[in-house]
Write a structure and sequence with these properties.
single chain; alpha+beta; Protein Transport Mog1p, Chain A; 2 domains; 37% helix; 22% strand; disordered C terminus
């Protein structure tokens, strides 16, 4: 027992030192992020965000660091930035973010809005995700599984906005990930808003996304109702392909996975308590194994 306590004490001290180092790294990371608030014009003057006090914006390079360096996703290049809750850190367990991207492939017609079989579409998407896993693992990223709809797709014809949510599981992650998707259809393009959080945050994200959608819109002249059939390009796909990721498929392997499936996984900060708990289980497990191996043999044969 004495040896056990001394060993555990050494592990606790080592864990505490490791946690302090990680805490310093996390603080440096957070201090380096350049948040913006108020009225934001997205790169290229594509759209505007009129942020209320409860939200902040991270420009593209800063968002890339969060997605790639902190959360362990493939390279997040190509985003228009992130919207984050002002009162939560992107490294907190309760932290979450809305990743903004943009597709300019033409005016997406919504003629198929009432004819899409989303159950069949989900099966096709699940198969595609599984087929991509071998290549994903070769590149050093965990396999991904599309569990199902966290919220089935629905289209608001009045606002020309498409909503749906996916429940995802990443190998090695303790909890499942929520990707809550909104597509704002524009004159010749689509504004992509993807809220990334834990599955247990679904109700909160649904509530907060109503505010995000309200302050996100295309600039005048670029809205869906501004479409000019004589001059403007029309996309080669409809709403079903938009949900399935037909647009992202052109981006290549990493672009496709990043656009479709973003992991909510924080790699920088490992809590000291969690690490101590892991070490405790490891150490006590070895003690139990040793005790079992050295225990006297008991004959249970009653014949």
């Amino acid at each position: 027992m004495k040896r056990f306590l001394l060993g555990l004490a050494a592990l606790v001290l080592a864990a505490a030192a490791h946690a302090d180092t990680n805490a310093d790294k996390a603080k440096q990371f957070l201090d380096s992020l350049q948040f913006q608030d108020g009225k934001i014009t997205l790169p290229g003057n594509i759209a505007t965000l009129d942020l209320p006090s409860g939200f902040r914006y991270l420009p593209p390079e800063q968002a890339k660091r969060v997605l790639h360096d902190a959360w362990g996703n493939p390279d997040g290049s190509g985003t228009l930035g992130m919207i984050v809750p002002a009162q939560l850190s992107v490294l907190d367990d309760a932290g979450w973010a809305v990743v903004i991207t943009y597709d300019k492939d033409g005016h997406v017609k919504d003629d198929d809005a009432n004819s899409i079989d989303y159950a069949d579409l989900l099966k096709d998407m699940q198969q595609g995700v599984e087929e991509a896993n071998e290549e994903r693992k070769k590149a050093g990223y965990p396999a991904t599984h599309l569990i199902g709809w966290a919220e089935s797709p629905r289209y608001d014809a009045a606002s020309h906005k498409l909503y749906w949510a996916k429940e995802l599981e990443f190998d090695g992650a303790q909890h499942r990930t929520l990707n809550y998707n909104v597509r704002v259809l524009g004159r010749e393009d689509v504004l992509v808003l993807n809220a990334v959080a834990g599955m247990d945050q679904l109700n909160m994200v649904k509530r907060e996304m109503k505010s995000v959608i309200a302050f996100s819109d295309f600039a005048p002249g670029s809205r869906y109702t501004d479409f000019n059939g004589s001059t403007d390009k029309v996309a080669e796909y409809g709403l079903a392909a938009l949900v399935a990721g037909g647009v992202a498929a052109k981006l290549g392997f990493f672009g496709k996975l990043f656009a479709l499936l973003i992991a909510f996984k924080k790699l920088i900060l490992i809590g000291g308590a969690a690490l101590v708990g892991w070490l405790y289980k490891l150490f006590t497990g070895r003690e139990r194994k040793s005790a079992v191996e050295n225990a006297p043999t008991v004959n249970l044969d009653k014949s």
